[in-house]
Amino acid sequence: MISQQTSELLTQINSYCETNKTEANFPVRNPATGEEITVVPECTADITRAFIKRAKAAQPDWAALTAQQRANILKKWHALILQNQDALGELLTLEQGKPIAEAKGEIGFGASFIEWFAEEGKRAYGDIVPPNMPDKRLLVIKQPIGVVGAITPWNFPNAMITRKVAPALAAGCSIILKPSEDTPLSAIALRILASEAGIPEDIFQIVTSSHGAEIGEVLTSHEDIRKISFTGSTQVGKLLMRQSADTLKKLSLELGGNAPFIVFNDADIDGAVSAAMISKFRNSGQTCVCANRILVQSGVYETFVEKFKSAIAKLQIGNGLSTETSLGPVINQKAFEKVSRLIKDAEDKGAEVTRLHTSLPEGNFIAPTMISNVTNEMDISSEEIFGPVAPIFSFETEEEAITIANSTQYGLASYFWTKDLARAWRVSEKLETGMVGLNQGLISSEAAPFGGIKESGMGREGSKYGLDDYLEIKYISMGGIA
Question: Whole-model pTM above 0.90?
């Protein structure tokens, strides 16, 4: 049962869809029940090109506003999101499945990027460079890159949008957003509130489509799109990069991960277990930075496994709209089949599979699963799981742990637990990831640079560094000063 405020928000979404209707539409379903929530417009390549044309025409006027004027509008958007946090959270749970407390938390987290970049947009400082000749003055300024194409995933359908849209708007860009076909309603809701805040419709446009490849090809090949920001799989990120090559677009790619979670013998075991639970099972394990491989030193292996098993047993599985639920469904049948395949492969190759929940609701629910005695021959040791499954490895030495942790093409996030200060420095520096969590399982913040290395992508989101991805540097040489 949803609240009156959420029902009213759905009515606004349906009105938006009717106003922007196309020849076809596609359904949005609740992953916990399979029930249809509503239908949204099926935008085509031609519609997307028309959006781009409007975005290019509108962008100069938006860029001409002062940073303070744009900040004032973004702050109104931020306030409206927080005023509607409960409804936006329920809507997110309806289309994505995560527990309602997590969903409402995501709304607040997503809003934090809007507030951050509203302020950070006022700090796009340039430089005065010492001249090479007496009669010259050398200036460096930063200007908005232009029209941005953004493609966002279903696992964080609110925060992944604001993390891209907020810096783009703060910098003076216009943006075309293609949300996941599984979770377009959160995007539409954000667009509705953006309009109320005073963000022009042509400056922030939504392309809803179940044909992602078609829309992606338009965004990457169109000469008027000057930047692509994408969060998703490494495979798709490489494709978008290739498609963007002919027009030399600026790219921000936040791609796959295979995060190690290392527990050393001197760790606070209770703290490590609590952090592993958050990192692994938040959003049913469907986060790009979640603990994909748990590495435990042999001296504390048995203790950690028993405590971890007890913590897993306390999880409550069900529909995310229930306040008692701590673990919802995976997003769809395809995800269910992938995670089930990884579990079976590990079991067939000799791993010990522990399922502590035998009674599950119907639908795309997977029991939180612990897998021990994992070897490198098992698919689960190298693939990104994206489900509530925790493979646990044992190691002997610090050097072995680092070798295992780095033995992947991915380099997004890593975590480790230790009380040894010298080890804290050594391991942090040796882990080949863009982000490291030391004695913690949650690392995302609007004030910190989010992003990876290796095949986990390029560019950074959030923080002061996140604004630079939407700006071009221009050098001005002034002569005849003497």
Answer: yes
